[in-house]
Amino acid sequence: MSISFKSILIPVDFSINTEVAIKKGLVLGERGTVIHLLHVHNYLSSGLPTRSLKYFVQKNSGLYNKEAEDKLMEWKDRIEEENKNIEVIARIRFEGSIQKTIEETAKKLHPDLIIIGKNSHHSWFPFLNTVIPNKIVHHTGIAVLTVKPGAVDNDIKTVLVPISTDASRDKREAISAFCRKFRVKIYLVTFHNKGNAPSRFHSSSLLQMYQWLKTSTNCPVEYAVLHGNNKAKAILNYAEKIKADILLVHPETETKIGWPNKHISDVLPTASKVQVLTIQANTLVNH
Description:
- The protein has 287 residues and is α/β, with parallel strands linked by helices.
- It folds into two domains: 7-148, Rossmann fold, CATH 3.40.50; 151-278, HUPs (Rossmann fold, 3-Layer(aba) Sandwich).
- It is 37% helix and 22% strand.
- It has helices spanning 16-28, 53-59, 62-82, 98-109, 133-140, 168-181, 203-216, 231-242, 264-267, and strands at 7-11, 34-42, 87-95, 113-117, 144-147, 158-162, 185-191, 221-226, 246-249, 256-258, 262-263, 275-278.
- The strands form two sheets. A ten-stranded mixed β-sheet has the order 3-2-1-4-5-12-9-6-7-8, with helices on both faces. A two-stranded antiparallel ribbon has the order 10-11.
- The longest helix is centred in the first third of the chain and has 21 residues, at 62-82.
């Protein structure tokens, strides 16, 4: 199986989120890549969720629609002018849920990757986030890269990979893609079992991944055994220690860092350079 980022979906809101997400898309893109820019106008944001509201907005949103179209065309022209081998397709949707619209569009387009730019979060109420990467991955099976503005000009040099029995194959494919495209160092981590408590992190899987990296890639690799009850928090602390650029994580066991199931990206500050690539079984494959 060979991974490539030939089709990338980027939801845009015309803020710094758009700039950082597009820049990361261009870094990962290659000759022949198609970037899909999606702008969702949430018609419920007016606070009047009536049945007729969507129809009213669609019929009376000419000015807004023109402004959004102009901004999308500016981005399309800019990207294609500076990157002759990349095609950009832009679209606008009027819907009541940004999250659901991204998922529906992803299922229709079948991109290799979705890139989400995030400039803020609700530290006390993470369920108020308008876009939740874990849910997108779970509902679509498509990998999601979450980036903060601090990563906008940051090169990809270090990749941190928690190793468990589930999703290891998909992680191997993702690592291969990074090693082909960048000169990166791979850090593998697993967790120490306490007593007889079951753990989804296993030293045998880590050893197999380590041996594979040594024999099949040109990327240098190190490994470590971490401790702590909250695996996601321990992963994040280790990422800060080694100055990781990419976290390659599973959406359930490796991203939930607090109550109620807050995603790792939600606790990263706006200035963070750490990018979170969330995958699960059968993601990051050519469609």
